[in-house]
Amino acid sequence: MIGTTLGVGGGLGLCAILKRYKFIELPSNVYPMTTLPIKVVATDVSVIALSAVVITLLATIYPSWKASRVRPAEALTYE
């Protein structure tokens, strides 16, 4: 949760800086605009943050389940 919170905060902070100072310039012969447009959609940010948390939790379930099935005495005999 801390990593997701820091990531969302950092991403929103960078988007705010990009939106204000517009320091990413685009080639005028390729694009109809001169700088990179920034648009933050709250639902997109929420879905991405929630997906990150769910994927992280799911990735911890299998190793935890596997570790809970090992007997400590058996694990120590192979050490």
Automatic annotation (TrEMBL):
GO BP field: lipoprotein localization to outer membrane
Keyword tags: Membrane, Transmembrane, Transmembrane helix
Membrane-crossing residue ranges in chain numbering: 40-62
Record bears the keyword Transmembrane helix: yes
Protein name: Uncharacterized protein
GO cellular component: plasma membrane protein complex
